[in-house]
Amino acid sequence: MRRISIAAAAAAVLLATGGLAWADRHHQRGAASSASVDPIYLKECGSCHMAFQPQFLPVRSWQAVMNDLADHFGENASLGETTRQAILTYLQANAGDAPGSNTRLLRGLASSKTPLRITETPYWVREHQKEVRPSAFLDPKVKSKANCIACHVNAQQGIYEGD
Amino acid sequence: MTIRTLLAVSAFLAATPALAGSAQHAVLARYAAEAKTADPGFTGFSAERGKALFHAKFATGKPDTPSCTTCHTENPKQEGRTRAGKIVPPLALSVKADRYSDFAETEKWFGRNCDSVIGRTCTPVEKGDFISYMITQ
User: Fold this and answer.
1) SS3 readout for chain B
2) Distances (CA, A) of A7 to A11, A13, A16, A130, A154
3) Is residue A34 part of a domain?
């Protein structure tokens, strides 16, 4: 396994090297994970952080997130009820365990667990444990593990792959 | 809105700088009408009070967001960053011309951010003051 030491957002450079786009490979399976991202989701869930791909969490997690937007990781992210419902429907249909989706991203996640964070799923932890020093997330340019775009420049397009 | 309130409301707005277009005036007029309904003695918005609100530090909201400046920085002309590291375009109208032009959008953010920072909703006067400050920036 290649060991990458990351000087902040410089990681982006490494991630731009070749390989099939993660999105292309994984979105092809099943109508549920269609490549088209709901514009309402992009706008409403993409203003404080990127609009994370629904495939990273199971249906039950999205339900939990969407049921407590007034206390969303220490902030108020409330939405009107119609918008909230529309987004929940989109997330449920495209979640990592929605019918027809590839459950690779949920591997190792116990069915008794309902993580609210992608960054606490076994898959995410595994991928980042191997190649990212914990201090990389503290860099002021990164600020947070949830700032995927700081390291994966094309994350909003679903492209995460290095090689 | 009756003609009379409309006229009364435009009197409060007479001093808004040329930067603000009709969309910003319409948003301010709605807050002015709400302010007038809540308090018939309302005499107009104040950019000075808006500036004070923007820079104030609160202990009544959520612990990670004590001030508007937590994300928007001390300088409204500068871009800010959310807690998750995402860039927030400046709030100053001179730098971002479509600010405060869509009432529903502006309302949504006041609703969230006032609750996160102050622990309550902002009053129509506070919202109007805040916009009055930002359109001079």
Assistant:
1) CCHHHHHHHHHHHCCCCCCCCHHHHHHHHHHHHHHHHHCCCCCCCCHHHHHHHHHCCCCCCCCCCCCCHHHHCCCCCCCEECCCCCEECCCCCCCCCCCCCCHHHHHHHHHHHHHHHHCCCCCHHHHHHHHHHHCCC
2) 7, 11, 15, 16, 18
3) yes
At residue A31, the pLDDT reads: 30
B-chain residues within 8 Å CB-CB of A48? 82-84, 86
* pLDDT given for residue B13 in this prediction: 59
CB distance B59 to B67 below 8 Å: no
What CATH code is carried by the domain that includes residue B126? 1.10.760.10
**Position A19 in a domain:** no
Q: Which of B84, B111, B113 sits opposite A146 (nearest CB)?
A: B84
Please tell me whether the interface predicted TM-score (ipTM) of this complex is above 0.90: no
For B121, the domain range is 3-135
Inside any domain, residue A102:
yes
φ/ψ of residue B80, rounded to 5: -110, -175
- Residue range(s) defining the domain that contains residue A75: 30-157
Residue A32: the pLDDT is: 32
Number of domains comprising chain B: 1
Q: Which two tokens stand for residue A143?
A: 């600020």
What pLDDT is attached to residue A16? 34
CA distance B13 to A157: 44
d(CA B134, CA A154): 33
Q: How close does chain B come to A135, measured CA to CA in Å? A: 15
Does the distance separating the beta carbons of B81 and A149 come in below 8 Å? no
- Flag whether A6 is in a domain: no
Q: Which of B72, B81, B112 to mutate to test the interface with A (most CBs of A within 10 A)?
A: B112
Give the least confident one: A29-38, A59-68, A85-94, B33-42: A29-38
Look at chain A and report how many structural domains it folds into: 1
